[in-house]
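Researcher: We're teaching a course module on how sequence relates to structure. For the next exercise, students receive a sequence and then see the predicted structure as tokens, so they can try to spot secondary structure elements on their own. Here is the exercise chain.
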Amino acid sequence: MQYNSLKSIAVLMTCHNRKNKTLACLDSLYKQSLSDGLCFEVFLVDDGCTDGSADAVRKMFPDVNLIQGNGKLFWNKGMHLAWTKAFEFKKHSYYLWLNDDVQLKDNALSELLNCSEQLYDKSVICGSMQSAVTYETTYGGYLLNRNQLLIPNGALQKCDYFNGNLVLIPKYVFISVGMLDPIYPHAIGDFDYALRAKELGIDCFVTPRHIGFCERNDKLPKWCRPEEKFIERIKNLYSPLGRCHPYYYWIYEKRHFGILKGVKHFITIHLRLFFPKLWYKC
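Model: And here is the predicted structure for the students to work with:
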């Protein structure tokens, strides 16, 4: 498909001490082919890296706009900072979330853009990810009623919420929904964004095929493991990196599913913290 006027994509990234993965991700990005009239600019937050990531990026990818973080931004706040700087820099046609552990397949960006154009650039497009080892689907979009990860089937599929590994936000959606909510430090912000969009009548879709590789982290959190000391389980649950941090999960569920569900999960999360062996027996 041809685009009649110049369109720019702001690629939003954040990194912390994953130099090799960050460089490999950027390499796969800069190898992408785009149609005439399309360009992208990268806005990468260096969130307190101590492994030389920033220097390596400057050397290998001098066009990247590096933004200094304070080491406490994690994923969601880091992505929010990248988005803020990209918006201040220029009004872009699209905003692309890209995790630094993603390896883009050939023509991944073109496929995202083609999907978006099919939907008149008024929907969110989530890129389906797969494992480079097993080739199984690892990240993408989900259906709320079954909490089911959608498997690419050759056609655009509507989803209710999605992982933020690779997500295209057209300008229309950005104007309507805004940015990621910086109240969340690390996790939940991507799910929250999808549901905020849905509540405004904006649809979200997953790509018809896998367009990138990203290995899934299915390791059971430390706070769920009975072999861990209780104090360590508490620290892990209330870590900003926790997927079910009680305070932020409460905000998310109260916002989208109501107080009763928020209270229910606040209680069950702590029951699992105190009695993890009960879940092991399920």
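Model: If you want an answer key for the exercise: The longest helix spans residues 74-89. The first strand starts at residue 7 and ends at 15.
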